[in-house]
Amino acid sequence: MSLEFLAKIDVLYQHFQAHDQAYSDRLSRYRNIEPESAELLNVLIRTQQSKRILEIGTSTGYSTLWLAHAAESTSAKITTLEIDAERSELAHQNAVDFSLDRFVEFLVSDAQDYLRQTTEKFDFILLDAERDAYCDYWNYLPQILKEKGGLLVVDNVVSHESEVNDFLNLVRDNPKFSTTILPIGAGLFLVTYN
Ligand SMILES: C[S@@+](CC[C@H](N)C(=O)[O-])C[C@H]1O[C@@H](n2cnc3c(N)ncnc32)[C@H](O)[C@@H]1O
């Protein structure tokens, strides 16, 4: 891992944290993933040698930068979805600033609309948006996750356990999938086909 990347992304993370501390309203906050979780995503992508990556919930692109840093080494293409155009543009600018923008397609879209119409298959999917929509997203996620070695990662399953319980049970009740929870950061739920 390049020390330059680590130092630069830490400065950005501190900046986003300062923003979030200034806002009490949850939706106004950027709510970026914890650095230790982001590091794990980066390692998982390198291990999987992912080629096609989907992120649901770009925010200001902190997690996207970690995905893109790994995507540079695996020659992957990332599509990241954000409903808020201003945030998506900010995320794009950050990717330009890190010279990682060529690996990322920034889409301003309601994730539900994208999931309903896409015919693509993804090796790696990060789900980090509004938790009350996750059960609906599960109507589409199995179709777009690659059956051979595809990995879905869902953030905040320990920090917001009660909000994701229905979703977790829905996935766990499906005998086609193996799952586990990693108590890293806010808690990551990992899902893969058997
Ligand atoms: C927890 S933040 C994502 C943080 C980001 N992954 C990171 O670590 O930097 C969730 C984001 O999902 C976006 N979002 C909420 N509902 C959405 C939807 N239906 N479609 C796309 N994005 C959505 C929010 O605007 C917010 O920026």
Automatic annotation (TrEMBL):
Q: What is its EC number?
A: 2.1.1.-
This protein's name: Class I SAM-dependent methyltransferase
Among the GO biological process terms of this entry, one is: methylation
EC class, as a word, reads transferase
Where does this protein have coiled-coil stretches?
none
Keywords carried by this UniProt record:
Methyltransferase, S-adenosyl-L-methionine, Transferase
Cross-referenced SUPFAM superfamilies: S-adenosyl-L-methionine-dependent methyltransferases (SSF53335)
Instruction: Identify a single GO molecular function assigned to this protein.
Output: O-methyltransferase activity
Source taxonomy:
Bacteria, Pseudomonadati, Pseudomonadota, Gammaproteobacteria, Moraxellales
Name the domain of life: Bacteria
Cross-referenced InterPro entries: SAM-dependent_MTases_sf (IPR029063), SAM_O-MeTrfase (IPR002935)
